[in-house]
Design brief:
By secondary structure, this protein is mainly α. 52% of the residues lie in helices and 10% in strands.
Length: 264
């Protein structure tokens, strides 16, 4: 979310998303129905995306222009909870399917070749932008660890993933917080407890306000990322609403994955 494209790259991205939307509507949505009925499990409302464009921003209005698909809540929650088992099963089935297609065409494709082609590219764990922003802010006013309140210096701070990267690989701005290096090493891949998160709310809100509201482009990115990855149920999105969404996301991760909690 928030990525922008121009020229031929914008045209290629737009066409790829449009083709994906058409394929979803014509194939899985059309053929996946409830037993004994023609009622689709994943009903779709088609959109009216604009034609070829040479400049685009991947945001909610743009993606919504292609249409919307409704996923039943029970199916969504099941997929989230059992994703660690669902993905390997899907990969194995696709490998079997691709080999059967190749065989009908008189070709032989080794299983390892298909498996390597289907490897998921992990998102980049890049915190350099947030680190540079923290150092820049230090030059004008002290920056404090959101967890301990300790004053940070360029030599003793880390950029912490509030919700652990190990279970929620998210490098959105709202999830990246300045932390004292010793505190971050204590926290490691654990989730902040509900009490710890609540106790740190003022420092987190202060950091968001100071770091991401001084530049219009960066603030827009901050808000778009939060709307895309957090359960926000208010039309008027402010930092308090985003923090409430962070608390809900923390609770869901804790419930679904039973990750160990951490507190000072």
């Amino acid at each position: 979310m928030g990525s922008s494209f121009t020229g031929e790259r914008a045209k290629a991205v737009h066409h790829a998303i449009r083709e994906a939307a058409v394929t979803i509507t014509r194939m899985p949505v059309h053929y996946m129905t409830y037993p004994g009925t023609d009622e689709p499990i994943f009903p779709v409302k088609k959109g009216r995306a604009k034609g070829t464009t040479y400049q685009l921003i991947i945001d909610e209005p743009y993606l919504s222009s292609f249409g919307k698909m409704r996923v039943p809540g029970n199916i969504w929650r099941t997929m989230v909870r059992f994703d660690a088992w669902i993905e390997p099963a899907l990969v194995a089935e696709w490998i079997r399917l691709m080999q059967s297609y190749a065989k009908k065409q008189g070709r032989e494709i080794e299983q390892a070749v298909i498996y390597n082609a289907m490897q998921w590219l992990d998102p980049s764990r890049d915190v350099s932008f947030v680190r540079d922003q923290t150092i820049q802010l230090m030059n004008s006013k002290p920056v404090f660890c959101v967890w301990s309140g300790t004053r940070l210096r360029e030599t003793n701070f880390d950029v912490d993933h509030c919700l652990s990267w190990a279970v929620w690989p998210c490098a959105d701005l709202w999830n990246l917080l300045p932390s004292h290096r010793k505190v971050n090493r204590q926290k490691r891949d654990k989730l902040p407890s509900a009490e710890m998160l609540d106790r740190s709310s003022d420092r987190i809100l202060e950091w968001w306000n100071r770091a991401w509201t001084q530049n219009e482009i960066v603030e827009k990115r901050f808000l778009m990322e939060a709307k895309a990855s957090l359960p926000l149920f208010s039309e008027n999105i402010d930092h308090e609403t985003i923090f409430d969404g962070l608390q809900k996301r923390r609770f869901a991760i804790r419930s679904d994955h039973q990750i160990a909690e951490w507190s000072l």
